[in-house]
Amino acid sequence: MKIATFNINGMNARQPRLLEWLAETSPDVACLQELKTPDEKFPAEALREAGYEAIWHGQKSFNGVAILAKGTKPVERRRGLPGDPDDSHSRYIEAEVNGVVIGCLYLPNGNPQPGPKFDYKLKWFDRLIEHSATLLAEGKPTVLCGDYNVIPTDEKKDIYSPASWTKDALTQPESRAAYFKMLDQGWTDAIRQVRPDEAVYTFWDYMRQRWQRNAGFRIDHLLLSPDLAKRLQDANVDRETRGKEKASDHAPVWVKLG
Description:
The protein is of the alpha+beta class. It has a single domain (2-257), classed as Deoxyribonuclease I, Chain A, CATH 3.60.10. The protein is 26% helix and 25% strand. The strands form two sheets. A six-stranded mixed β-sheet has the order 3-4-2-1-12-11. α3 packs parallel to α4 (173-185). The chain is globular. It comes from Piscinibacter gummiphilus. Residues 4-250 form the Endonuclease/exonuclease/phosphatase domain.
């Protein structure tokens, strides 16, 4: 079973690239973030023609998450994280596909920090941590994947150069502490399990020739529950997708499970 996550940075703008990537790589499940489109404009029919059924949680011009499944309909379990009924952001959707629970998330960026956006990021992260503990207690094979907006370390394997990002919300100690708190619950960072020392990046900004210079960092993660971690065969990034015309500034990340 191949499960992928891809921040597409605008469904309407990137739909050709998305369909191209699905045809080329054929993941069994694809989790998408930053749809930036309302529910009624989600291209369900185009995806169906490509062989994928979908559930989605859209929002006009902002946020938005979706789960696609090849040849089967994802069985929706929830949309939105528990803990704040007034949270209007479309950042989380959860489904079951072929016996695996799939949580697709787009964690708040948090910039500028300090400030209310960073406070919201940390509060959202706290809610995710609480929900992730509930999922582990449920005991089903689960993957929580998406754009976490956290660069785990300052090491070269996670970021090209930390010096320019010391004040960014993605590198703050509070953001990293929350990420590792999740790992301490028992989740496995799939990329680091398979590629412990390799420089693996998932995001390259459009500015300053960062793609061309490989000046990237890793913020898109797939976290596996203990039973799924035992089934992990491979994990990697489809880097070539980032280099195509009118590409997202993220590249797809995937795991292969036995």
